[in-house]
Amino acid sequence: MLEKPNVLVFDEPTNHLDLEAINALNFAFQKFDGTVFIVTHDHDLIDAVATRIWAVDNNEIEDFKGPYEEYQASKGVTAGSGRR
């Protein structure tokens, strides 16, 4: 962190965090001046910070340039349902 990296990688960063810590992490991600790769199932985190989605399904990667809400809409998923 002392070298001011421009790329960070996180795997399920919100697991085992309380709500206050998750909110602080979301804020830090939004303020970070670089690229953050996040692997997560936390849809709230994705919705708060993602500007590009790489969705992996059936050994295929879909590259969607846009926020998570637009990605869900492109898949016909209604907010909160998590289903097509």
Poorly predicted runs are: none
Summarize model confidence as the mean pLDDT: 89
CATH class: Alpha Beta
What is the fold-level CATH name, i.e. the topology? Answer: Rossmann fold
CA-atom Rg in angstroms: 14 Å
Written overview of the protein:
By secondary structure, this protein is of the alpha+beta class. The chain has a single domain (7-74), classed as P-loop containing nucleotide triphosphate hydrolases (Rossmann fold, 3-Layer(aba) Sandwich). It contains three helices and four strands, in the order βαβαββα. A two-stranded parallel ribbon has the order 1-2. A two-stranded antiparallel ribbon has the order 3-4. Helix 1 (19-31) links the parallel strand 1 (7-11) and strand 2 (35-39). The radius of gyration is 14 Å and the shape is globular. The termini are far apart.
Topology:
Blueprint: E1 7-11, H1 19-31, E2 35-39, H2 43-49, E3 52-57, E4 60-65, H3 68-74
Parallel strand pairs: 1-2
Antiparallel strand pairs: 3-4
